[in-house]
Amino acid sequence: MASELEPEVQAIDRSLLECSAEEIAGKWLQATDLTREVYQHLAHYVPKIYCRGPNPFPQKEDMLAQHVLLGPMEWYLCGEDPAFGFPKLEQANKPSHLCGRVFKVGEPTYSCRDCAVDPTCVLCMECFLGSIHRDHRYRMTTSGGGGFCDCGDTEAWKEGPYCQKHELNTSEIEEEEDPLVHLSEDVIARTYNIFAITFRYAVEILTWEKESELPADLEMVEKSDTYYCMLFNDEVHTYEQVIYTLQKAVNCTQKEAIGFATTVDRDGRRSVRYGDFQYCEQAKSVIVRNTSRQTKPLKVQVMHSSIVAHQNFGLKLLSWLGSIIGYSDGLRRILCQVGLQEGPDGENSSLVDRLMLSDSKLWKGARSVYHQLFMSSLLMDLKYKKLFAVRFAKNYQQLQRDFMEDDHERAVSVTALSVQFFTAPTLARMLITEENLMSIIIKTFMDHLRHRDAQGRFQFERYTALQAFKFRRVQSLILDLKYVLISKPTEWSDELRQKFLEGFDAFLELLKCMQGMDPITRQVGQHIEMEPEWEAAFTLQMKLTHVISMMQDWCASDEKVLIEAYKKCLAVLMQCHGGYTDGEQPITLSICGHSVETIRYCVSQEKVSIHLPVSRLLAGLHVLLSKSEVAYKFPELLPLSELSPPMLIEHPLRCLVLCAQVHAGMWRRNGFSLVNQIYYYHNVKCRREMFDKDVVMLQTGVSMMDPNHFLMIMLSRFELYQIFSTPDYGKRFSSEITHKDVVQQNNTLIEEMLYLIIMLVGERFSPGVGQVNATDEIKREIIHQLSIKPMAHSELVKSLPEDENKETGMESVIEAVAHFKKPGLTGRGMYELKPECAKEFNLYFYHFSRAEQSKAEEAQRKLKRQNREDTALPPPVLPPFCPLFASLVNILQSDVMLCIMGTILQWAVEHNGYAWSESMLQRVLHLIGMALQEEKQHLENVTEEHVVTFTFTQKISKPGEAPKNSPSILAMLETLQNAPYLEVHKDMIRWILKTFNAVKKMRESSPTSPVAETEGTIMEESSRDKDKAERKRKAEIARLRREKIMAQMSEMQRHFIDENKELFQQTLELDASTSAVLDHSPVASDMTLTALGPAQTQVPEQRQFVTCILCQEEQEVKVESRAMVLAAFVQRSTVLSKNRSKFIQDPEKYDPLFMHPDLSCGTHTSSCGHIMHAHCWQRYFDSVQAKEQRRQQRLRLHTSYDVENGEFLCPLCECLSNTVIPLLLPPRNIFNKLNFSDQPNLTQWIRTISQQIKALQFLRKEESTPNNASTKNSENVDELQLPEGFRPDFRPKIPYSESIKEMLTTFGTATYKVGLKVHPNEEDPRVPIMCWGSCAYTIQSIERILSDEDKPLFGPLPCRLDDCLRSLTRFAAAHWTVASVSVVQGHFCKLFASLVPNDSHEELPCILDIDMFHLLVGLVLAFPALQCQDFSGISLGTGDLHIFHLVTMAHIIQILLTSCTEENGMDQENPPCEEESAVLALYKTLHQYTGSALKEIPSGWHLWRSVRAGIMPFLKCSALFFHYLNGVPSPPDIQVPGTSHFEHLCSYLSLPNNLICLFQENSEIMNSLIESWCRNSEVKRYLEGERDAIRYPRESNKLINLPEDYSSLINQASNFSCPKSGGDKSRAPTLCLVCGSLLCSQSYCCQTELEGEDVGACTAHTYSCGSGVGIFLRVRECQVLFLAGKTKGCFYSPPYLDDYGETDQGLRRGNPLHLCKERFKKIQKLWHQHSVTEEIGHAQEANQTLVGIDWQHL
Ligand SMILES: [Zn+2]
Ligand SMILES: [Zn+2]
Ligand SMILES: [Zn+2]
Ligand SMILES: [Zn+2]
Ligand SMILES: [Zn+2]
Ligand SMILES: [Zn+2]
Ligand SMILES: [Zn+2]
After folding, report:
1. Which strands make up the sheet holding 300-304, listed edge to edge?
2. Which pTM value belongs to this model?
3. Distance 148 CA to ligand 3 centre (A)
């Protein structure tokens, strides 16, 4: 270890090692004053062990501490060797049935949604898997650390409290058994002694506040003079600030500073300097000076080293105690006793109290150690948990006060332990009754919120930052209150009632401070100057929402409490609004002969507040009363008589009017804060205790008042009284055209008021208001959400209010109202409304936002049209009201209501200008509809003795009163149904008239009623219906025709895009119907097709015409014409790599000529297949570049592509590209000399080529030594006999046009630049090699994809792939024409020499280390450079064929040498066939050449099988290669899927079916070649097992296997700790899906430097694992991360879905997640297809915010 080299390490004090634990313990046993004895021991030894230098050495310290300090204590405790003592204790122990496992950060925890008493009850993974809950609806989360497993806590679970493991212990449980009975008296006494001393010591030293002086009993005689400069953590300063300051103050490197900062952040403190006092003091002052500028300075102390030493040991002791009590429950109980025993100073002097009360003074590390000890001791012992809870409650106020002053997060505060007591029902109730906990919490809360206005209400305006910070902290008190209330009492004692009501009083005090807070006044004239503070008040409201609901739930569970609470609430409301008249003069309103007194109050002129929690709580309690039995049986017990309805409705009504006015645009000048408040008022998070309750309060009021009075007050508050009380006001009012705005405003207000009346009558789905239950309520919510559109589970959950357990109750009813549609490969599962539920749709559902309402209306009308029904959306049939609210329906038939309806209908009939609106009319129609439904129901349910008093039909048939002889409402409706301007509402009016007739008929169902009239109506009705049906049919036909035309048009527009995006994105979705079949022109089936060689099938050249996507011009592809190019993307790839540890170290020196068969780094080329003129592309690219430069100057925005690196987006499909490939004709045809007579065989050919090579090498040498003497020169010329017909001085004429040549160079250079990551240099000799390599690699990767998917080799490829491969192959074949002939010849010679050795190439790789396909491609494509100088008559085709045969044979030898020789016992029964004996013979030859190093000879059957299997990929790649090179169509047999196409491939490639024949035919030369291959020392080393080699066939790489259950991944990641900061848990563990490495991402600790920049662990990993491209899973987030290079990245949807077919990115919902194999395959496919970078590009184009993320820091 490096640390041992550091000079400050001091040798271990001998005396320490000589200590004997047994002896010391013995001494202690004899001691009279044990405390003194132990303290002296500690005083002497602790400073010798701890803090001996600037850096801690935990291992050494721990070892010595165990030996010298803890060892004696263990001996003393056991009274014998602890190695025997502890196991004995453990055996005697009856372990507790509690699991109590303390969670690590990031560990998965599980809660059962069916059985957990509240969501804080969780299980550890092990317990969960062994529990009944794994089959329930559970929820999974990751722990933030702290907290423990609740397995075994019977109070935490409604069912199944034990897992299998912990259930074992339950049979013997006797609740009251004292665990001490299992211990001997001696042990108890000794344990007590040692625990008392050590615990006290630890508490004393940890809470010690002096900096250089020890407690007296620990002070030493000789004290060293060493100090530490100790830096403490705070939450104010950032990492960067601390790092920067430290570099300055203690002069350390950045790396050291990061180390210090990380430790300070984790442990809460770290010494940053060690030395004498002065030295440390100096550092301290620098730090303080540097950090005190803006905020309070960092906390630094100069501490004497012995104090730090004792503190470190104190912590060690606490951990030790925690582990010792694990041996026995008895020991645990003793520790609890010791801890809670009151000290000499009385109250609050126990050790536990002392620790708690100094919590906020302790540093983070110390806190977490003692919290852990509390959890494993006090909280695990049920008896002491109770006592501890009492201590906690008694100290509650002080602890909270300390917490407010402290700046650490709550998670590291002792106050966070509240969840452990408060959520336990019996404890909570005990604390309420005995410690008055409810009141204490609320009062503590009130104490911390002191800012009040003159009326005593909270005031958050002009909050300072510090106050705001405190306000955030104080909210945790609400959480505590919630915990206390979370389990409702099943039984009430008088004491509980009393204390609860006391708490309720305190709560009302709190609400009283909120009632009317943040009042606002309408701004007229000018816009407000400063947006007022509103968020604090709403935060408070939001946090309290569940508490308010729970308070009501508690009240509801006991009638006595309910009535008392109701009275108290009412009293407080009266206090709040005692003077609600605000001193205004009362005024009298009258309409239709009714009159009422009220006050003059205008929302638009006076103060109004949106916060009315007291009124709303009363509304809630009122509904509960209405539900209770008392309400029916003893209504006289209710305090209803004390209610003053006008007072009750006043403030809620103002609030609703405010909303209406805001909507009408009257409050525009009040800015956004008001808009936001109105938004939240209706929002799902708040509405339950805001908007909903205001509606209830109005309903309560109306049900107790004369509805006419109510309506008049309402008109007055809406400031519409004038309009409806003055006859003909409408006419006058509409003539005042100048006040257009006012008219508009009033229209909206009228609409809003009508909407409110609809709500008051229609909203009866809260239990207590209407006769419904909770299920009906939630059903109705869901029906209305799904009426807007089908929704995913999570969307639906978001739109529904959650209760305190985060439940919406949706699962229980969703089946009844919706169908579930499973998701496909993308998207998510959706719920669709069942058609039969559509009739329950209410257009004026009160939780719809405006946008939702209009969407729902549209959707429902569309649905009706589709079903060929009329489009009326009549009000649904409603459940009856509860008795307390029953009289509410009368509002519909009240005189004032009828007057309002009549007036509006009259306006509609007159239809003059804009003084009325269709929305208004629509609402009136809805109201009439509701009234008719109501009457119908009344008639249906009528019983003998009751008279139906609801007589709406009669009332609307009578003519109006106000202006005499004005028409009846019915008459006006009949008029309106023919109004041409009301086409949309016709169906609704018709529905009303029909229903009217039906109701009338019911009412007049006596035999004497005039039948004819009704029949007449019906007749009329039906003929009208017919008419309508005909009209509708025609309209439908017209609509269908229109739709068809539209579809066709958009189809045409989309055509291109579809082909390019949809189809191309699924690159290899080889769907025959959608992909183009280009090359597969019909070929006679009996014709044998040959792809290469002299016998190559000659295909007549087809002329090819292409269109440029940029200028739309068509052009023929010809040798001499302007170049056409395809957009292309070149990238490095490790997708096929078999060795991820290998990467190019020094690209400048790297020689890529031979590809190793591990394919560790290749160059892949892809293309979207879009063709452009080279010059058109050039112009386009220049413009992109120019634009980018301008853009960067203006605002430094990133784009999804990197222009400086030559990247651009395809102008058509926006596919990421970085170069272009030229489009070419088969290049071989240009150079082929048609002379097929008398071609040499392989042996002859090899000789000829060898001679030519020799000649070339000679000439090369000649050139490089020009100064040689002429004599020597001539000698050499004599020596050199140029082979016949070989003219090395000949330079062929290149037929390509300049433009094509230029493009050949462009693409070649791009491949070189990207493939090697070097600067472009078109002269570099490696350029051609990179081109051939990319061609070979791309073909190999496509062959792999096809094989993996069992697709045929020449099946229909999508055109973009087909085009890409063709262009790439032809380009690679033509590239030599723009390179230097001698360079290419040089490559050829070297490649050739790897198989046919010659003298001038010494260090060539052995054949085990050459990828044969890359070799083949290189040889074939380099060959023309040699062949063009050969005039002996050997054709290019002959050369290709011989090269191919030679490489094939080398590959066979490669396969045989590496074939797996294990016998599988499946010896064949048939006699060996020809191939088998041939291969066996060849194998024997090999055996011989390798000096018998090759393993024993297996069967020929086995060998032939390995050869066939091993060579298939090579043959397939070769077939693709020659197909594209020479343009010979593929044989039809290979175009269809089938098992093996071995024979067809052989014939297409001009190979014998028995491949071994190749050797036999050419045995003359082959034997010597094989011998030379086998002689290579590497082959020998391999055969002797000294090295490894790649075997064939190479298996395809796959992404790693992922577990089915996501939680096991979380668990795996929670065990992962950062590799750099010793054992620390990683905050963002990230899994590489390619190799399975877990990385510590997005964190300082694991940043490394890459090419001069700091990058995160993921980016660094991509460079070694994926040559820049990475696919990761962020485990905590459940999110897939794609990275490419340093600047590009995107998130991708993870392959894990919940049962509702949805992903959970960020793990917010916590539903169980399971692996979706199809989606994971899709990710793997993206990887195989090299489409990750492209995917990132598309994602970034679609979402610009992705571009700004610092991907390199992940
Ligand atoms: Zn557990
Ligand atoms: Zn368990
Ligand atoms: Zn359960
Ligand atoms: Zn063009
Ligand atoms: Zn494109
Ligand atoms: Zn790390
Ligand atoms: Zn990896």
Report:
1. 269-275, 227-232, 300-304
2. 0.79
3. 18
